Each structure stands twice: as structure tokens, then as C-alpha cells.
């Protein structure tokens, strides 16, 4: 009998799985035994700053440990942290901590099996081929950026062929690039190949030229051969954890690869998908991008993590947490608040429970997950398990394909950030940026309104000023960037950086 | 009993070996069983152009297959090809061909296990830390380049912080960078760490500042944790092949990691090390850098590969092949000419043998190794095996440490390229470049003359014009670059590029 083991190979201390192959096998063998796991989203309050996590990964790990302890076959799917950021010391890794840890966090944090390096090489190779196309007269402007896994603020604005051509460029962080998005959204190597061929390399006489017009696609898929395989590791308690695909829900789509989630659903009854930074970033993107437009499974439950201090110590921002919980409940997703306590906060449990009660939340799950791991959760999960087991499989959400870009932006502002359409502001230049994107799409034979909307924003804010009174909050639309291969259109909002390339600090 | 298996783990279709750990184990357990294999160098005639190989890897693979067939335990150590160059289509892979192939050439050619990506990230992270040091006033000029695995001519001259600071930079090809050299030359992670700490990051008020002064070294070694492990694969006939370390004997040191060769010598009786491009590049560097200055084993025999056409079809360059063979014989290395035939050249064997005889060569080994693999070699190796088995272990060569840089350059020009000292020319600016390097070294507390000389040159030429008559050939010294961490000083010669960053073609 063919099993997942036939698609699995050891790769040092982790395993790599040929998920494309396994899912193809299941499609071709509809009678082969497989599970139909439900997706649970672990997301969070909007963080006070990007470098301060609420504990989503810690929660995810503790949650699957607790579910497994309760006899439920649960696994987690995590995004691969950006090694550049971790290695530079700008933030900690993203692999849990304390009793809610992975067996080999250092592998996850420090480059895993070279996936990011492969994507970096492949995207940079595309740029080199575009330069060659310029030399050959097939292209006059390049629109695809080079990438670097390592942050460096000075790379936000660069010039190549300096002293002669002085061609201005920018370098973006590898995990945020279009090729990473393509890997995240594709369900086969053929789809990757097709999407790369549709990537707009640049323009010739103002008209879009795609990579399919001049690149041998096998060169790119050759580089990605191992990178497309999810890694499998486990928690210190033996719960399975899959790691695959890029982070950065602020400046990109910030979700794990769809194939890794679907594979996990075929293997386990509950699949916990981590979606951060906050609900306004990772969860919004899972729901409105992955589920609405790319056929991912609508979550059967959600957990919204916060720290006691994030929730309550800054009164001006205290509206955000209940807003997130309410938004998910309104989408018919049973949503459980989870407060991840830090050392010395145990005495706050009664008051936190009282606040949750006042706000009309479900009974909150509270624990020091770093200290106590899944043990802290086991007795608190009755309601959660009940919602999961007795809820019906969710219906397919409505697609926004065909909705005008600005309408889509307004819809997201209203639904995900609480700002009504009339307070969505166009920054000078935005309308021109939309027109330009529209022309570019037309010249490539696609419609801008059929691309999926990706909000590019700061992880720590939803509006131009989250501290303003509700009726004064605005969202400013700044500029537009087309990722035709991935099928996405990025719109920069509010205080977003125009180039996703952090400074090391 | 502890064996190499205890240091080996599966990594997809190849294995990775903790060579540092195994060699440490052998040092600490002098009675543990191990072999004392002899090193054989497979090198080549100077190629007519860089993209046209003579067939060194094909020969290396056929040779170990033939030796194993003769009952001799032989393994090969190959350098990891540069994926960027291969994927860009600028040259074929470097993993043999036809019957002289590896089981999984695609792995070797397409990024192996992410080693190059890790080195790229680590070297680029060093540059980012140097930028941070500038912000903090610890540094005012950066001397370490960023790297890219993917070739792109426009990266030879770049500017970062463009539009504001306009800081000129260059980007070099990852496999040629100082961090790759450090990995190639180091025998432990501690040595890597120490060498990185001695790398000159840049200057402050004209004085050298090293990375040890401001970087947490564990961040760099963390990234390199898997990259330092040699990969093990095999030929289609089952002979063991280790792959580790960067190529590019033209612009860098172009040798596999010393630890991979030493590990192979502890495991096998004969270890074939591929050293290319030609004898003037790879072999010169194995002998004069690895053996003379870094304690590598002097070869017990050498094979110099050529193609019939390279050797004889260009009369002006026909002096090079016998020059190489003679140079190695003069160094007491039994040297066997090997002519790698292509389709349709079988009838040339008698005339090739006659030419070899005229030139006073040992009996040449001749075969179509792509078509026939090791089978073609088995009956021709009596003399080679005899030289290997009956030769004594070679003596340690003399170090050139303390020899003035220019004397060293003249010594190499005379011995490796056949150009006497009086025809070594200083290009305008060279003397100033030496003085500057000397001052830089002094300010770092090291002596320029204790660094090991690395010739940076075109792979296809040894002199300013190899076609000139012997008595008119010159070598021009152009400029100097210090790699204090690796312990090397690069000197650009003749027609070398000043930045190792090819254009894709």
C-alpha cells in the first residue's frame, strides 16, 4: 500500500515530504485512505510593535500537544521564519519556547534545508535573465526586484551598472518576493512553472513582457526542486509540525504553502495553521486571499492570542482585540480568546476572565504556555473541541474576483480594520498608480480586477492612526504593485514601507 | 565501536557527514582504525575558453570506478559547482557525463543541500553588520563585498543607499568570497569562527577594523552549521564521491574543503582530488596554497587531462600541455597524461601516443570516458597504480611565509607559467596597491608577507599573451586585495576581471 512514507525522505534532523506527489497520488486514487482534517487558525491581537510577538507559535505548539493529549490527532503548519531577520538579531526565532517548543528549533530558525536560499537564487536568476533580455532588445525596463535573505536598509534603493548605466533598483527581502508567493499558492510544479511564465518581467515600449517569453522555465523549477517540499519536524512532546513557506503577513501574503496545509489535512483530524502577525494581517490574508481566491479551507475555529499587557495596558489600543474576535465570530468562525501569560501574571486570571465576560467573548483560554506547555490547555479545551467536532464543514466563501481594486480595498478597510469606505483616502499619486497598473495588466492580457488584493501595511497598525477615536480613523491608499504570476495586486496602506527591506538593529 | 556512520546522516538523496566531528574523533582516538589514503590530483591543460572543460570531472569519476574495479579502495573529492552559472546556462554542470556519471548529477548541479545559499546569507549578513557598525561610528568604509550566487554583469559595480548616500559597492559571486575560502581552509567550527573574527570588515580613520570587534560570531557559525558538512554521493558504479566547497580556481582558491579531503583519506586508500581549471590554476593552488601553507597532503601522483583538440589544434598554444606535465614531474609528482577522446576521435590514438613519446611523457592514458567510463581505463592503469603504491609518502613542501608578495608573484610566474622574474611587469597603480595593502595589514597587526599568495587570473591564459613567443611572454601584476581572515592575499594578473561576477550568456 502506498503511504505518506513513500513520499517522505530524511533530511538531516527533519524530514522533507514530496507534498505535490502525495496530493497527486490522492487525487488519482480517490479510494486511498486519507483524513479530512479541519483547519484551525491561530492568530493574534495586533502587536504593539513588529518585534514583539504575542506567542502565536508557542500557542500553536501547546495547542497541538494538548489536543494530542486529549486523543485528537492534531498537527500544526508553520511558516518558515526569515533567517536573515533572526540571524541579524532583529527578532527572536519563530519556533515556540519553553515547554511549547520544537525538538530542533535551531533548524527552523537557521535556514531549515536551504529553501529560502533556493528561492533567492531563482528570483535573482530571473532578474539576470531579464537583463539579458534587455541586451537582446526584448525588454527595456525591468519590474522584478532582486532579493536578499539578509536585511540591509541600504538595499532599499540601489543602482546597478553604477558609473555607466546607473540603473535604479531596489532589493526586497527574499521571503516577500513573488516567487515565494507562487510557491505558497501553487499545488504542483506545473502550476509553479505556469505562474512563473506569467510573471511580468518588465516592459518593452510600455507593454508588459512576461518571463514565459524568454526564460527556459526548467531552470527555475530545477532550482526549486527541493524547496517545494514541506519539512516535517515535531514538538518536544512528539506532535507533528510541518514547516513550509514564507512569513511576512505585513508586506506579503504571510501564509504557509497551501499544499502543506492540504497535505496535513489528509493526514490529521485537526490542522492548526498559524496566521500572524495579528488578525488584521495573517488571518485576513488566510481568509480573504487563501480561502476566498485560492481554494484553501475556511477555518472551523480560530484562536486569537494576546498577552495580558497587549490587551489592557494601552487603553487607546484596547479596542483592537475585541474587534478582531468579533470580526471572526461574525464570519461564523467559533473564536476563542487565548491569553498567553508571562511570568508573574498568574494572579490576573480572574480579572481577565471578567473582562472577557463583559465583552461577550467565549470563555477565554488562559495559561503560561512557555512555562506549562500544552498541560495548561488540556482542561480548558472542552468548548473548543466541541465547536470543532460538532460544527459542520464550512461553506466555500465568495470570491471577490472582478471587484474593482479600490472597492476591494474599501471592503477590507471596513471589514478587517473597522474603517468605513468614506474614510478610505487616496494619497496623491495613488490614482495614477492604479491607472498605470491597469494599463500594465491590459498589455499583459489580464484584468487588474481579477487579481487578488494584498494589503501591504505595518504589522503594528491597521489604520493611519489606531490611537485616534473610532470615528476619526482613516486608511490611506498609497500605491499599487502587480504580481501577475502569483495573481496578486499589492496595495500599500497607511504607514507601510514601500520596500520590504528592514534595517538591522 | 564508533564509525563514520555515526557522523553521517541522510539528506534527501545524498548523505551529509559531520567531517569536523569525525576528524576530531580520530585525533582524540589515535588507535581508532583509519586509513592513510594518498592524494591524486586530476588537473588539466589550460582550457581554450572557460566554458569548455577538458573533462576533469568525467576523468575523476572514470578513474575511481576503474581503480575500484581493480580492487583499490578509491574515492573522489569534487568541488560543488556554482549553481548560478549552471542554472543560467553559461556552462554545463560539473558532475561528469555518460558512463562516467554520478547517480544524482542534478543534485550536485542544482544547489546540493543549500550550502552555497548559507554562505551567501552569512557573508551578506557580515556586510549588514558592517553597515550597522558605520551607523554606530565604529567603521567608516566597508571592504567586504556582498555576494550573489547568480551571475549578473551589472552587479560588478553597484551603489547602495542610492539617491542619498550613493555608496559604491561591488557584488561578487558567492563561491569566490572570503567566507567560502574560510570554510575551505578551516578544520573546525572554532577555526571558522576565529578566521571570521580576523576578517577585515573595513576601516575607521584609515585603520583596519575586523569583524571580531563588533559581530557575535555565533550568528555566522549558526548559519553555516549544515554547510560545513561535506555531501557524499556516488558514481553510477557505486564509487564514493564527496562534494564540498567552492569552485573558481581562476578568481579564488578553487579547491575542495581540506577537511573533506582529509576525511576521505581516513576512509579510503586513494583519494582523487579534482583541481581545475588547468594545472596553472587548480593544481598550482592545491600545491602552493593548500599543501605549502595549509598542511594539505602533497599529491602522490597527478593526471593531466586534455582533449586531443585542445592539445594539438592550436599550434601557438600547444606549448602549454607539455609545460604543465613537466612542471608537475619536476616537483617529483609522477604525472600521467590523459587524453579524453570525443566521438569520432578513436583513430587518433596512435598519433597521440607518438606525440607523447616524442615529448618524453609517461605512456599516456587515452579513452572516450563519456562513452566507455572507467572500463576504458582499467587496463591502462598499471604504471599509475605502480607509482601510487610504490612511491613513498611525499615530504612536506616548503612554506613561502615571509616571502615578499612581489617575490612570491615572480616565483609563481616562473614556476607555474614559465615567465622569468624580469618579465613580470607592474601595471601603473600596482605598487600603490601593494603599499596600501601593507598599511592595512599593519594596522590590523598582521604582515602582508605572511599571507598566502592567490593568483587571480583568466582561466584560459597564464600570461599576458600565451600566443606570444616564449621569450616575449610577460605577466602583469595589476592590484592587490587582502583576505586577512582566510589568510590570503589576492593579486590580479594579466587579463583578469577585477570583480568575479560573470555576465550570463
From TrEMBL, chains A, B:
Pathway: One-carbon metabolism; tetrahydrofolate interconversion. GO terms for molecular function: formate-tetrahydrofolate ligase activity. Its EC number is 6.3.4.3. The keyword Repressor does not apply. Signal peptide: none annotated. The lineage of its organism: Bacteria, Bacillati, Actinomycetota, Actinomycetes, Bifidobacteriales. InterPro entries: Formate_THF_ligase, Formate_THF_ligase_CS, P-loop_NTPase. Keywords: ATP-binding, Ligase, Nucleotide-binding, One-carbon metabolism. This is formate--tetrahydrofolate ligase. It comes from Bifidobacterium longum subsp. infantis. The keyword ATP-binding applies.
Amino acid at each position: 500500500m502506498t503511504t505518506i512514507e513513500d513520499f517522505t525522505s530524511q533530511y538531516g534532523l527533519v524530514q522533507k515530504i514530496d507534498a505535490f506527489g502525495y496530493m497527486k497520488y490522492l487525487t488519482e486514487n480517490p479510494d486511498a485512505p486519507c483524513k479530512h482534517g479541519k483547519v484551525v487558525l491561530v492568530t493574534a491581537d495586533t502587536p504593539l510593535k513588529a518585534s514583539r510577538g504575542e506567542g502565536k507559535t508557542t500557542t500553536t505548539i501547546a495547542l497541538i500537544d494538548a489536543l494530542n493529549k486529549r486523543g485528537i490527532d492534531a498537527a500544526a503548519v508553520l511558516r518558515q521564519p526569515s533567517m536573515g531577520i533572526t540571524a541579524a538579531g532583529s527578532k527572536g526565532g519563530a519556533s515556540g519556547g519553553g515547554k511549547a517548543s520544537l525538538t530542533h528549533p535551531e533548524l527552523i530558525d537557521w535556514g531549515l534545508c536551504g529553501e529560502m536560499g533556493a528561492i533567492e537564487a531563482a528570483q535573482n536568476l530571473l532578474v539576470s535573465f531579464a537583463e539579458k533580455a534587455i541586451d537582446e532588445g526584448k525588454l527595456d525596463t525591468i519590474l522584478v526586484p532582486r532579493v536578499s535573505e539578509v536585511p540591509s536598509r541600504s538595499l532599499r534603493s540601489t543602482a546597478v551598472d553604477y558609473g555607466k548605466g546607473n540603473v535604479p533598483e531596489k532589493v526586497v527581502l527574499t521571503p516577500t518576493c513573488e516567487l515565494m508567493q507562487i510557491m505558497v499558492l501553487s499545488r504542483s510544479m506545473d502550476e509553479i512553472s505556469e505562474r512563473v511564465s506569467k510573471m511580468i518581467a518588465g516592459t518593452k515600449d510600455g507593454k508588459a513582457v512576461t518571463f514565459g517569453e524568454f526564460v527556459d522555465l526548467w531552470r527555475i523549477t530545477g532550482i526549486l526542486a527541493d524547496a517545494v517540499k514541506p519539512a516535517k519536524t515535531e514538538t518536544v512532546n512528539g506532535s507533528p509540525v510541518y514547516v513550509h513557506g514564507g512569513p511576512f503577513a505585513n508586506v506579503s501574503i504571510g501564509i504557509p504553502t497551501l499544499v502543506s496545509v492540504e497535505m496535513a489535512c489528509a493526514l490529521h483530524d485537526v490542522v492548526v495553521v498559524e496566521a500572524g502577525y495579528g488578525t488584521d494581517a495573517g488571518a485576513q490574508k488566510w481568509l480573504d486571499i487563501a480561502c476566498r481566491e485560492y481554494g484553501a479551507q475556511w477555518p472551523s475555529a480560530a484562536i486569537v492570542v494576546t498577552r495580558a499587557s497587549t490587551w489592557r495596558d494601552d487603553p487607546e489600543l484596547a479596542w483592537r482585540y475585541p474587534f478582531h474576535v468579533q470580526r471572526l465570530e461574525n464570519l461564523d468562525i467559533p473564536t476563542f480568546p487565548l491569553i498567553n501569560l508571562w511570568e508573574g501574571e498568574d494572579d490576573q486570571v480572574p480579572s481577565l476572565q471578567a473582562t472577557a465576560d463583559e465583552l461577550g467573548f467565549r470563555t477565554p483560554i488562559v495559561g503560561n504556555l512557555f512555562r506549562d506547555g500544552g498541560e495548561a490547555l488540556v482542561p480548558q479545551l472542552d468548548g473548543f473541541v466541541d465547536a470543532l467536532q460538532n460544527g459542520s464543514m464550512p461553506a466555500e466563501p465568495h470570491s471577490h474576483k472582478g471587484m474593482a481594486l479600490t472597492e476591494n480595498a474599501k471592503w477590507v478597510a471596513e471589514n478587517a480594520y473597522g474603517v468605513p469606505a468614506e474614510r478610505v483616502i487616496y494619497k496623491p499619486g495613488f490614482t495614477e498608480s492604479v491607472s498605470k497598473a491597469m494599463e500594465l495588466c491590459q498589455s499583459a492580457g489580464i484584468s487588474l480586477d481579477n487579481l487578488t488584493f494584498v494589503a501591504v501595511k505595518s504589522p503594528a497598525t491597521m489604520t493611519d492612526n489606531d490611537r485616534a477615536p473610532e470615528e476619526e480613523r482613516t486608511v490611506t491608499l498609497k500605491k499599487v504593485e502587480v504580481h501577475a504570476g502569483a495573481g496578486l495586486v499589492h496595495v500599500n496602506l497607511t504607514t507601510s514601507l514601500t520596500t520590504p527591506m528592514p534595517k538591522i538593529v
